[in-house]
Amino acid sequence: ASGQVSAGDDKEICHGESVWLKADVSNSFATQLYLNDDTVVGPISIGFPFQFYGELYDSVYLSSNGWISFSPPYPEASSWNGGIAPKPIPNAFEKVPKNAIFGAWQDWSPVYSGGIGYETSGTAPNRIFTVSYCQVALYNCEDSTGTFQIVLREAAGNYYVDVNLNSKPYCKGWYDGKAVLGLQNYEGTDGVAAPNRNATQWDADKETWRFKPESGSYSVQLLTQYTPVLSGTLSPVAWYRDEMLPENYLGTADSIRVSPSVTATYIASVTLCGDLVFSDEVEVVVRPLPIANAGPDQTIIVGSAALLDGSASQYFTGDCTFSWTPPDKIADDPALIKPTTIDLSYTTAYYLALEDQYGCKSDSDRVVINVINGPLSLLVTAEPPSVCRGDTVLITAIGGGGQRPYQYAWTSDPPQAYPADSFLRVTPDHTVIYSCTLTDIDGQQEMVAITVQVMNPEPYISGQDVVCENEPNVLYFTPAHGNNSYFWMVEGGIINNNNIDTLVSVTWTNSGIGELIIKETLPPPLGCIAYDTLEVNILRRPSPTVIGPETVCQGDEGVEYYTPDVQDHTYTWTVIGGTTDPPGANPAQVAVSWGAPGQGLISVTEKLSVYPTCKTSRSCEITILPGPQPAIRGPQQVCEKESGVIYLSNMPEGTSNYWCINNGIITTPPDDDGIEVTWQQAGTGELILTQVVDSSGCAAETVPYLVTVNDKPEVLVSAPEITACEGDRVEVTAQGAVKYEWFPADGLAAPLEAEISFDAKESIIYQVIGTNDFDCKDTATVNVNVVLLPVVDLGEDTYILENESIELYAGEGYAYYEWQDGSTLPSFTACNPGIYFVYVENQGCFVYDTITISPTLGAIPIPTAFTPNADGLNDEFRLFGRLDKVEQFSMKIYSRNGQLLFETNDVFSGWKGENLQGQPVPAGTYIYRIDLFEQGNPFNQGIITRQGVVTLLR
Could you tell me which CATH class the domain 551-625 is placed in? Predict the structure, then answer.
């Protein structure tokens, strides 16, 4: 099949010539990409607008790991490079490509083998953009390769996506062989995967899957027929001679120069994805060269001419042009078949060359015209004059003139012993000047030198002699020399493209010692070949492995990971979803503190110290389980010895709590969502809450919840125990605090002061709460024992009649009695009017009672004299006693002769010794009459009249 490559038109050359053959692939080849492992390139033009999830795009980004995206990687340019196992879609994890089509997303290794390319084909509105992955090796299973395509079809505005799977293996030992076939949107919120192809272990052979837009998402269908796109070659052009056999391989390049000696067929071959081989042939016709024959050597007499004869020459394609040299030694036309020489005076060599109608030129042929009897001459020739190293050269010396016999002496640099012959056979290994000295019998000498050129090329290779295993695209070159041809060969690596140029790109695949060989060849007719070999030390690429827990808990700190520590290797760790702790003594180890729940990633890059570009990165995906977020709520200012202080936690369902305390006592079960605490001594206390998710065991603890335990006041009272008599006024003072409050407050004069007072009524306990500046409290109590007073009641004041008595009783059973006259009996007999009192004591408490026994008004004493001299003593004549009981009253004063001097109805008014005109009366005796009615008189005496005389003294 030649539809994908043209080797060009057939060529015709002359024997010994070279010709360039060029394969025309400009309209059919895909654009090839050379990608390292875990890389993303772009933007790459699609060639037409393509709609994906409702948005139009004109370019894509292409990954070495089997997917394309319409967006550049985010949040970082390296976020989607790889290093993680394929994830089920849809998936918003930052390491999962978004706005992407997954042809076969898994870890591929295009550096090791295979190719990746893209091309746009077709015409609107049915253009096609094809990305082809051709025989790409699986990472860690490089013997297995995959070939598949991602195809964007314009499809008259329907915008289909096809995935053509020629062959897709899996590597069970790497990421468990997982791969994804599908697509997802920009946010990672909508994704469609082929059935059983969503981050699962699967292989495929000759399948085509089609994704069609549908209701804002996509439908997926397995087509009944595998329909790959013939997207052009992904391999360089390989050239063969006659047959496509390994032994006939000539090289890899778009163009190649060949020098066949006979007519030959050359084949240009390219390989498409799926191992479909296209080739084309070109024939190079080699025309034979004319054969020049200058005739036999001749001998002539000095001064004569010779007839040259080229008639014995052969030519096979019609007429030929003859050319004799040197032309200045030809008497007539040097283009004649038989020209005549000029008259010669010494031996001369003539050369004949032919050129046919196709421009093919013969080799020159020589004829020597030996001139005798002339001066001594020497002709030295070398056949051939230019050789390859190791070839034999015949150097001939032809003497003429002088006197024979001749002697020949040969010299060269460096000097060497040669036979004294007229010819030499030499095998020079470098360009040498050979000199011949001719001596005739007369001793005349002639010396001639001739140079034999050794034309071997001297290639040398420039480039790195230390590389890394699987290091791609390492460039080497050799200097260009004229029209020489070049051919590169490699052991321990692969040549990526053209191997017949002066520049070559090599990917070194095996560790150890590799060899790069350049073969440089001169063009015909010599075709000398030389080689140069560069030994390359291919360092074994590091192979780190992340070892450590793959499932952790949110907030886990100091989780250790390591990779085997190899001497003279360096290590760099990176983490997504957590932070690394400060590095320790061993750089092959790292401690990680994991953050929010979700997916995390830890990666290690291992480098060779002597060649840091020789490095490998490995990643381990980490599942970060949700951890608890314990928090404590409660007072952080408390008091010494304060009890019943409540602290609460945020205890979600499915978690367990574990409390720990310092400087306090938990008085409730320590695994509840809330606890009660009794704090101990003044200073600082702390609570730590550990919370555990029951299902996963993920735990977290709070930072110490610090509580300030303030000093508690010491409240003291002046009298904790008080015994008081009923009715006593009691005072108590508290101290040791700033504020006070007494309970019960009823009957207290100042219940919010340090000092209180109250009347003792009954036994009671008072409590005082003292508060300091920290609002801490202390209490003290006052126990008040009230001793009841004796119950003594002598009765209401009363009256007594003359010659009668009244019995007064002070009660029974008391400890001590004392009456006004000093008697100590519980009772007393009153025989006369007067004031009687009794003192009664019981348990140190006493009472007394008084009773006034008054005579009736009719029996009250009436003064017999008075002295109205204004000295404040006895200045009036009046009644004394219980005058408030008098309801009616009349007092009149008469002189002895019966003259009315004074009268009043006010029982509290008295006579001041004056007449009715207010004039004093003389001292003497006067008559009075008093009429009165006593209210409440127990004896019902009615109006009582008292009359008598009173003496006024002056």
Answer: mainly beta
